[in-house]
Amino acid sequence: MHVVAVLAADGVSVLDLAIPCQVFALVREPHGSPAYEVRVCGRRTVTASAGETEPFGVLAPYDLADALDADTVMVPGLPAHPAPDPRLLDVLREAAARGARIASICTGAFTLAHAGLLAGRRATTHWRFADQLAAAFPDVRVDPAVLFVDEGTVLTSAGIAAGLDLCLHMVRRDRGAAAAAEVARMVVMPPQRSGGQAQFIAHPGPVREDGSLGPTLQWMRHNLHRPLSVADIAAHAALSRRSLARHFRAQVGTTPLRWLLDQRLQRAREMLETTDVPVARIAREAGFGSIETLRHHFARHLGTTPTSYRAAFLV
Asked: Residue 207: its pLDDT value, please?
C-alpha cells in the first residue's frame, strides 16, 4: 500500500494538515479497500493554528521516524520563520534521498526550502509569502501566480484550497483521472483545476445576472463532442469575445479554449480508464475529432499515447 506521511509540527495549519488526510483516505481500490495508508507523524502532541483562534493541541499518532519509509511525505503549512526543527529537516532530506515524493501546502514550501529540497527548482507558495520565500532562498525559482508546481518528486502548492488541487493532482497521477474525479465528488470539489491556473480568482455567485460562467461551463462540458469555437462559447454566455476572455480569466483562471482542452483530456482519460470503447470513438466523443489529434495532445500534455495510458489501468 502507498504510504502517505503528513508531518505535524508546532504551528501547523489545521486545515492544511487535514486536507491530505481527507483526500488520500478517500481513495479506494476497485474491491473497496483503502488505496493509501495515511500517517500523521510528529511529536506526540503539537500545537495547531486556525486563523486567529487560540492554538490548540493535535495528537500525532506516529513519530517523525515513521515518515522515513513513506512513499509520499506531505508538509502542511508551518510558520515561515524561524527555521523548522532540525529533526524534521533531517527526515525530509533522508526521505528525499531514498526517493520518496515530497510535497508541501502553503508555507510548507519554506520547510522544503530549509531542507535544501527546492534549490534550483521552480516552486510556489501562498501569494502573500511568495516574496519572502524568494528573498530568503534566492536559489528557488518562485512562481507566485500558480496553484501548484509539479517538479516530479518535489511538489509545492499555494494556500489551503490549492492544497486540495495538489492532492487531487497527486491522486490523478497515482490512480488515474476517474479515481481523482470520484474523490472530488466526495469532497464536493469543482472540476479539475490545473496547476497553472491563477491563485487569485474572483468567484461570483451562481446568479446569471452577475456574469457567472457556471451555466456556460456546464453547457461546454455537455457538448465536448462538438467543435466549439470561442464565438460559440461567447454566444452561449451572451458576451462579446473580449468580455468572455475577461470573465474566464477572473472566474476560472485560464482561457476558454485552454479550459475546454483540459475538460476534453479529462473526459478521454476517464473513458480510457473505465471503458473498453475504441480509441477512435473516444477521440470523437471527447471532442478531438480524430485519433491523430488525440495522440498529439496526449503526447504533449501527458507524455504518453492513449493506448499506453489505457494499458496502465488494465487489471
From this structure: 33
Q: What mean pLDDT is predicted for residues 283-298?
A: 95
Q: What is the CATH number of the domain that holds 277?
A: 1.10.10.60
Query: What confidence score (pLDDT) does residue 204 get?
Result: 39
Q: Could you tell me if residue 305 is inside a domain?
A: yes
99 has a pLDDT exceeding 90: yes
CA 157 – CA 195 distance, rounded (Å): 8
- Pair (103, 231) in one structural domain: no
- Domain holding 12, by residue range, is 2-186
Instruction: State if pTM tops 0.70.
Output: yes
Q: To 10 degrees, the CA torsion angle through 154, 160, 161, 164?
A: 50
Number of domains in the chain: 2
pLDDT for the residue numbered 52: 75
- The CA distance from 162 to 224, in Å, is 26
Whether residue 82 has a cis bond before it, omega within 30° of 0: yes
Letter string b/e over residues 97-117, b meaning 16 or more CB atoms within 10 A of that residue's CB: eeebbbbbbbbbbbbbbbbeb
Query: How many residues are there in the chain?
Result: 315
The catalytic residues are: 106
- Predicted pLDDT of residue 302: 80
